[in-house]
């Protein structure tokens, strides 16, 4: 059994970011930028007014002065002339400050009429003027590679005049559920069988992490079926299997794939749930074999697959982001396996986050997993922890799961 | 000017959840459930083994006893007979516990061979048996309406044998940018003009909140163009405009839409950035008019559009989720407008979250908005706050923006 941290390191060190593709700006949302976005324009392109009012010379803007309004400069319609002494130009937010003017008189600080305007408050040089390049200058990098593009980033790339973006291709993840006993929802259920939940839960998790799932037909617990299905998926960036990872006679994934060129790195991790986890390489395609129990499969996916998807996506990758909460009930000392305990989250009146472990932790129980807000992480050999102890948690909402 | 909370209440009270549609299970991820998911099967369907080992009578499981192995029960292949005294059945995780047996002997607690098995540890009644219905029973509601379906929920709906789900239709949001001075990225930029960023930033925000954006062609600052574009969008669940909301002569949205049957609810909010914000109804379609400045538009979208999208989506809706951080620098007293101040987030060595307001807050500056991690919320007339004061924040990552 190897520790969780070592297993994760070995997984991440075997993976590389996907190649780059070109997508249109609107498709760029949520994708990982692969090349810097260099501004192609300066923003604002010239000195512009930040307010509605009058462009004038600050020296002329004494209270009670009478200035002749010689033109108008709405946004997008620059005034061509020059503002001379005793003159003003009507201007609107975003309008270019005309030559000669060096201040903006707010319209609420002026009385206007009959082709003239008169300040009721003084103005000063540079007031209410946005300088050219205040936001960014042409040639500067406004977005750096290796970030997942937000709505704000899309706005910034648009403003920098980029209709196309270079992003990493979505990692393509083949998902293979194995087992004689499982049927797809709505399909006839074999005697003694159950409905398959892992493949579609994992597909949703892959999509939530920016990947593209490829759900393969269920493979029976039979060497040929598993081998055939798995080799069909070797064009993926990563092959995920569920089931068949344990030590029983009916756990076939390893033995079925060996003759197909599967090379094992490790398959036992000191964690709970999820000890049997396969990591290896199937003829050049990295392969992660998750346990068959639904809770074990999803917890292992959170701990190993999400970081793997981040690495494949071109994002900084490491352990999934952890937070802190106070224990809502006493916990016993831990044994030598790292424990991930389903817990409900609540916030006290003082804003403190409390994680209360659910009483039954059986790894087949999906309903309690769906209800849980977080996993409480218990290190190997952690001592008993009374209620109120701060503990490390993995909050599901923070990782989009 | 009306307060932010009142404006939000008036917006939410005018909106209703979209109707329901049927989607396949994999499409259900991220959608808002509209009808309960009632389990169609019991899970586990029968008492099953939680481990690999031997099913037997607990009374027989004394250390050193010699039990005859009469058959095998892998998952999906139930053993048809009955386990009698002195007998055992080889069993695997998920296999049905055969009639007669009431305990599971772990394989690591047994020595086996020659058709017999002998316990090296005692077992007790019910040990390592998952009872039928431990996870859920047929007929029970495993998922309730009004929640956005996570990967865990999709797994649970699958296990409950649902290939289809009833969800709310994605809210369709028409997005209309107005202005003579703006051009789409890559298109020729008019003299004195700038590249349009609002429409695509807002479209990304709509998608991030589970909506379906419909980006309309840019409308020139001209009554006919605005009226035509806006009425084209009356089949949407909500029409969003940007620009043309202020008081200047060139702010045309209200005057252009009046003759088209636009009925105004309010248009001035005591907030910064974003005072001019239009809310009303265009012949039955709710209409939100955002300011034209990119930062104002996005901040107003965070504060008003995200809650509106939640209401339209069938989710519980209220003010956008707020957190707390410590101020990273002194802030002056606030005036009568609620202030949303872009800030960088950082975590100290003690884990405390600090929000440091960016020095320049001009509402045209998209680059600083993209870099910011949060908005610091300053209530009207808030007193001066020294560095270290706890303040309310809206964290962008927590709302997917």
Automatic annotation (TrEMBL), chains A, B:
Pfam family of the protein (one): MoCF_biosynth
Cofactor(s) named in the record: Mg(2+)
The keyword Transferase is assigned to this record: yes
GO biological process, one term: Mo-molybdopterin cofactor biosynthetic process
Keywords, comma-separated and alphabetical: Magnesium, Metal-binding, Molybdenum, Molybdenum cofactor biosynthesis, Transferase
A molecular-function term among this protein's GO annotations: molybdopterin molybdotransferase activity
UniProt-listed InterPro entries: MoaB/Mog-like_dom_sf, MoaB/Mog_dom, MoeA-like, MoeA_C_domain_IV, MoeA_C_domain_IV_sf, MoeA_linker/N, MoeA_linker/N_sf
Transmembrane segments: none
CDD domains: MoeA
GO CC field: cytosol
Keyword Metal-binding: yes
Top-level division of the source organism's lineage: Bacteria
Record domain MoaB/Mog: where: 174-311
Record pathway: Cofactor biosynthesis; molybdopterin biosynthesis
SUPFAM superfamilies: MoeA C-terminal domain-like, MoeA N-terminal region -like, Molybdenum cofactor biosynthesis proteins
Known catalytic reactions: adenylyl-molybdopterin + molybdate = Mo-molybdopterin + AMP + H(+)
EC number: 2.10.1.1
Function: Catalyzes the insertion of molybdate into adenylated molybdopterin with the concomitant release of AMP.
Family: Belongs to the MoeA family.
Name assigned to this protein: Molybdopterin molybdenumtransferase
Taxonomic placement: Bacteria, Pseudomonadati, Pseudomonadota, Alphaproteobacteria, Acetobacterales
């Amino acid at each position: 059994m190897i520790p969780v941290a070592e297993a994760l390191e070995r997984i991440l060190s075997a993976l590389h970011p996907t190649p780059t593709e070109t997508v249109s700006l609107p498709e760029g949302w949520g994708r990982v930028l692969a090349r810097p976005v260099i501004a192609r324009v300066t923003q604002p392109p010239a000195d512009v007014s930040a307010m509605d009012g009058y462009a004038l010379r600050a020296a002329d803007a004494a209270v009670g002065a009478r200035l002749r309004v010689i033109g108008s400069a709405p946004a997008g319609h620059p005034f061509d002339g020059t503002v001379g002494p005793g003159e003003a130009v009507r201007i609107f937010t975003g309008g270019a400050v005309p030559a000669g003017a060096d201040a903006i008189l707010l319209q609420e600080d002026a009385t206007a009429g009959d082709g003239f305007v008169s300040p009721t408050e003084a103005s000063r040089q540079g007031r209410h003027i946005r300088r050219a390049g205040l936001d960014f200058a042409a040639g500067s990098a406004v977005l750096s590679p290796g970030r997942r593009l937000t709505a704000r980033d899309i706005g910034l790339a648009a403003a920098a005049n980029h209709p196309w973006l270079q992003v990493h291709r979505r990692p393509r993840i083949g998902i293979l559920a194995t087992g004689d006993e499982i049927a797809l929802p709505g399909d006839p259920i074999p005697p003694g069988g159950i409905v398959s939940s892992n493949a579609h839960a994992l597909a949703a998790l892959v999509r939530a992490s920016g990947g593209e799932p490829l759900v393969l037909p269920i493979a029976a617990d039979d060497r040929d079926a598993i081998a055939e299905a798995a080799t069909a998926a070797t064009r993926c960036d990563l092959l995920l299997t569920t089931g068949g990872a344990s030590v029983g006679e009916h756990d076939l994934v390893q033995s079925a794939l060996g003759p197909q060129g599967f090379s094992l790195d490790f398959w036992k991790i000191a964690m709970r749930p999820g000890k049997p986890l396969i990591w290896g390489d199937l003829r050049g395609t990295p392969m992660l074999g998750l346990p068959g129990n639904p809770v074990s499969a999803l917890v292992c996916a959170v701990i190993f697959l999400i970081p793997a998807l981040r690495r494949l996506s071109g994002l900084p990758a490491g352990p999934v982001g952890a937070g802190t909460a106070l224990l809502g009930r006493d916990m016993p000392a831990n044994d030598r396996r790292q424990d991930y305990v389903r817990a409900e989250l609540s916030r006290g009146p003082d804003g403190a986050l409390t994680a209360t472990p659910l009483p039954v932790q059986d790894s087949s129980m999906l309903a309690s997993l769906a209800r849980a807000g977080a996993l409480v992480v218990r290190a190997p050999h952690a001592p008993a922890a009374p209620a109120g102890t701060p503990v490390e948690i993995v909050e599901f909402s923070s990782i989009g799961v």
